Amino acid sequence: EVQLQASGGGLVQAGGSLRLSCATSGFPFDDYAIGWYRQAPGKERERVSCVNSDGTTYSIDSVKGRFTISVDNAKRTVYLQMNSLKLEDTAVYYCHLKLGSSAFWGQGTQVTVSS
What pLDDT shows up at residue 86? Predict the structure, then answer.
C-alpha cells in the first residue's frame, strides 16, 4: 500500500523558515515523480515544486530562490525547505506521488505565515 506521510507544517513569522517532510512507503523508490502542492483558502490547489527520480526538479516562479525540494533516498523522504516565507505562502501543503499512470496524495500539513 502506497503511503505518503507529510509533516513539518506550523506557524511561522514572515521571513522565517520551515521544512516539510514527505515520508513514503509501499512502492519502489526508483521511478517516481513526487511533488508538493498547496491550497490556500478560497483558491485552487496548485503545484509548488516537484522532483523526479532522475533528479530533475521544478518549482513555480513565486517560490524560486526561496523553496528547495530535495530527496533522501535512504529515508525515502522528500523535503521542501521553505525560506523567506511570505504571508501568501499560507496554505495547506500536500505531498503528491505520480507513479506510472497512478497518483496518490498524502494528508495535508498546514503552513501559516504571520506578519
Answer: 98
**Closest alpha carbon to 69 in 46, 43, 37:** 37
CB 21 within 8 A of CB 106: no
Mean pLDDT in consecutive groups of 10 residues from the start of the chain, 115 residues: 96 98 94 95 96 94 97 95 98 95 95 97
Alpha carbon distances (Å) from 102 to 29, 32, 33, 96: 15, 10, 11, 11
Show the cell assigned to 45: 490547489
Residue 4 identity: L
Q: What pLDDT digit, counting tens, does each position of 44-76 carry?
A: 999 999 999 999 999 999 999 999 999 999 999
Q: Closest by alpha carbon to 22, among 89, 97, 114, 86?
A: 97
- Contact present, 2 and 23 (Cβ < 8 Å): no
> How far is Cα 20 from Cα 93, in angstroms, rounded to an integer?
9
Q: Counting beta carbons within 10 angstroms of the beta carbon of residue 38, is it exposed (0 to 12), middle (13 to 18) or buried (19 or more)?
A: buried
